[in-house]
Design a protein that fits this description.
alpha/beta, 9-stranded mixed beta sheet, 9 helices, about 30% helix, globular
Length: about 350
């Protein structure tokens, strides 16, 4: 597809605004046809702020034959939209997939399991996570056998942990644990906190035993927005480890060395090139270069833009990047974590219909 992909957005909420903003900033890649609006508020936003077209029904959007649609909708609407657009063979990029039950996932798989659907699971494409995953899989550390993380809720964290370990659809024994804590309120989608307030927060921890590998996670409510909770990644392997941005490994069995995964930023300390992330450097090499220079995308926007461009490639070539089935897997394991915590005992992940694909 040498031309820009013709796209339609479903959902004009907070997360939908990310896709709209990125599409308008990458006109060489995306022709933003408009938004399917279901409320006067969203219609005004699409018309007055985004300056884009408006579709008053899904039938009108389908009739325009977009190359793909982006659905940034609540979880309860995902299954219905997936079936509707699959019936017209229109590819869908879902902002997230978060089914309430294994039964719902199995039913959706039976209905449209092989439809052209991908999920914009952006965390593996955030620059520093991408650099860590590249390093873990590069061979410099040898066989990776443990990955531990604390930064975001389970199904997002699992998508990163599995890539660090090189795990696909393998079925672990799941150990889950939850507790309630107290923490000062931090920022939320509405902005900075307005008072000094201690709130209850839910903490969920897990260990996934894959036999020769394990994944460990720990997440506290709204941790990703908190100013007083550090994001942590720790990877252990036969010949080294990654701890956040620090890589420790061996040149040979007598020669340990350490290097840092470093952000190269333009626009700091008098630099006049602009205000953007140039890339990630490690051990004297560019591990990742920002393809969106000189746009002022922050890390999550870079990751979402990457998902959008990978969706364009998927439509062109069929090469996926995070399929509906892969999202099933991460959500399934996340549900088992909650089940294990509730039962106070380990739970074994079992084969599901989508594992046969």
């Amino acid at each position: 597809m040498s031309r820009p992909a013709r796209i339609i957005l479903i959902g004009a909420g907070w997360r939908g605004s990310f896709f709209a903003r990125i599409a308008r900033m990458l006109p060489e890649d995306f022709e933003f046809l408009g938004v399917v609006c279901t409320s006067a508020k969203h219609e005004a936003l699409a018309r007055d702020e985004w300056k884009t077209g408006i579709y008053h029904s899904h039938e009108a959007a389908i009739a325009d034959k977009p190359d793909f649609v982006i659905a940034a909708v609540p979880a309860h609407a995902v299954d219905t939209l997936a079936k509707l657009y699959a019936a017209h063979d229109i590819p869908v990029l879902f902002e997230t997939y978060c089914s309430a039950s294994v039964e719902d996932m199995n039913a959706l798989y039976k209905s449209i399991g092989h439809a052209p659907i991908q999920v914009a699971e952006q965390y593996p494409f955030q620059p520093m996570h991408l650099a860590r995953i590249h390093t873990a899989r590069s061979g410099v550390l040898g066989n990776v056998y443990m990955a531990k993380a604390s930064f975001v809720q389970n199904y997002h964290m699992l998508s990163v942990l599995r890539r660090l370990l090189g795990i696909g659809m393998e079925l672990p024994t799941v150990y889950g644990y939850t507790r309630e804590n107290r923490r000062i309120a931090g920022p939320n989608r509405a902005g900075d906190p307005v008072m000094d307030e201690i709130q209850s927060v839910h903490e969920e921890m897990f260990l996934l035993d894959y036999g020769d590998k394990c994944a460990i996670g720990d997440y506290e409510s709204m941790q990703q927005r908190s100013w007083i909770r550090t994001h942590t990644i720790h990877v252990r392997a036969e010949r080294g480890e990654i701890l956040n941005e620090t890589v420790t490994c061996l040149k040979d069995y007598l020669s340990p060395y350490t290097y840092t995964l470093t952000r190269s930023e333009a626009g700091t300390h008098g630099n006049l090139e602009g205000n953007y992330l140039r890339g990630i450097i490690g051990n004297g090499e560019w591990i990742w270069r920002n393809p969106y220079i000189p746009l002022r995308f922050f890390d999550d926007e870079i990751a979402i833009a990457t998902c959008m461009q990978k969706m364009k490639t998927f439509v062109e070539t069929g090469e996926g990047f995070y399929s509906l089935l892969e999202s099933f897997q991460d959500q399934y394991i996340s549900l088992l974590v909650a089940e294990s915590a509730a039962k106070h005992q380990p739970v074994q992940a079992l084969p599901q219909p989508w594992h046969a694909s």
